[in-house]
Amino acid sequence: MTNDLMAFVSGNELPVLSDDALADAIEQAQQTTGEGNRDTTFTQYLSFSGKTGAYALGKERDDIDPEALFLVEPMSFTDGWICWKSSKPVDRVEWSYFDQGRAVNESDLQDHGPYNSAMGEGWSSLRGLGCVALDNEMTQIKFSSNSISAKNSINDLLNEIKDRSRRGEAPIPVIHFDKQQFEAQGAKNWKPKFVVEVWLTRDSANAYANGGLTLDDMLAGVTVKKVAKKKK
Questions:
Q1: 8 Å CB contact between 70 and 133
Q2: Torsion of CA 138, 140, 145, 148, to 10 degrees
Q3: pLDDT confidence of 185, banded at 50, 70, 90?
Q4: Residue 54 in domain
Q5: What are the pLDDT digits (tens) for 89-142?
Q6: Using CA atoms, how far apart are residues 69 and 29, in angstroms rounded to an integer?
Q7: Which domain holds residue 19?
Q8: How many Å apart are CA 134 and CA 141, to the nearest integer?
């Protein structure tokens, strides 16, 4: 991971993938599930409560503006593990979704037991994504969760990125964070919902990151085509 998500978005420190290569990378990662380190790239962590339907951003646990827009970098998805004990996370291991060679097997995780299984304690698989706020502060956000419903929502977005890449369509989503209520085993719960406002090409995302495209034009769907270099 790069230390600057906008540099990440603009591709300055990223592997440059064609649409087909991105789709292939996602598909290969989905089919492969060994040491990984905790990702500390992002400046703010965002969590979601399936019981209350509330988002909590950063140390202050602020609610997130439901109208705020965020650009999701497809290469920023993460996998990992999180360990819960006494209703608190006591350990976390993460790695890039696209680098499953650094994955950690459950049997290799540190034992923080004893665990109260009735309280859901112990290690659970984790999935996350990275995004940047499209505002003046350009806040970098990391959202991750170990709940099944939240991981399914992340997987849905990831699969849509893969399918669009395969079809040669713009693969970079601009989203806002929403929520959706559902019922499971007679209880009502909430799951995060990532509402896509617009899909961007890599060139348009690069142009915005580099100041060559305004936010309004980007959200309006103005596309920027890569200019071929003239042969000498």
A1: yes
A2: 50
A3: confident
A4: yes
A5: 999 999 998 888 899 999 999 999 999 999 999 999 999 999 989 988 888 899
A6: 27
A7: 5-219
A8: 11
Mean pLDDT across 71-80: 91
For residue 231, being part of any structural domain is answered with: no
- Cα separation, 31 vs 53, whole angstroms: 31
Distances in Å between the Cα of 57 and the Cα atoms of 93, 107, 198 are 20, 31, 23
pTM of the model: 0.80
Q: How many domains does the chain have?
A: 1
Q: Residues with Cβ < 8 Å from 31, sequence gap 6 or more? A: none
Q: Alpha-carbon distance 128 to 92, whole Å?
A: 12
Tokens standing for 222? 């103005």
Query: Whose structure tokens read 């984790």?
Result: 126
Residue 186 within any structural domain of the chain? yes
Q: Which of 165, 226, 166, 227 is nearest to 199 (CA)?
A: 165
Q: Is 224 domain-assigned?
A: no
The type of residue at 49 is S
Token couple for 78: 């993460």
Mutual angle of helices 148-166 and 19-31, in 10-degree steps:
140
